[in-house]
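Here we describe the complex-level prediction in full. Unlike the single-chain runs in Section 2.1, the two entities below were treated as one system.
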Amino acid sequence: GQSLEQPSEVTAVEGAIVQINCTYQTSGFYGLSWYQQHDGGAPTFLSYNALDGLEETGRFSSFLSRSDSYGYLLLQELQMKDSASYFCAVLRDDKIIFGKGTRLHILP
Amino acid sequence: DGGITQSPKYLFRKEGQNVTLSCEQNLNHDAMYWYRQDPGQGLRLIYYSQIVNDFQKGDIAEGYSVSREKKESFPLTVTSAQKNPTAFYLCASSFGTGRGNTEAFFGQGTRLTVV
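The structure predicted for the assembly as a whole is:
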């Protein structure tokens, strides 16, 4: 069954901040990754959290709480080019498993 | 430049035909993966390989086959047994899950259409 849960869609306003949540159920957990995919394109790696806490990379930050089996991706100062799908991913039994993705809509 | 290359970008297949999708990487990655993506959907794992001459079925392997004769290459064959093959196929590679890091690099994908 599906071991990663994330909202199917999120809408935010240009210039604002948005948080995309991901909960997971998996044994042998190593860490949580995030990917961005624009329409018709390939997913690109954004971040990886192996330990609890916040990792910041420019306008994007990612958070992990292993005790809660929960993480999120935080996008600040939203730009229209951030309109895309965002996937969380985990390692399970030597496989990289992806969530179903969150479609981010940005309003001008 | 290092990267992962999929070909062709678009592929049309008649019903009942087998087709092979190419995936080549020069990143010296041990692990390679094939995913299928349907419109508005996530990535579903078809097959994966952690080392040369070894591969495992993913969640939706029926109707597909792979080989891993070289570290750099992981071709996917969509057979006539696959009932609904029209989809976007993505190949990825990584340093291997032994390091715990799930940073994968993706090819640009092959869009397969059955006509």
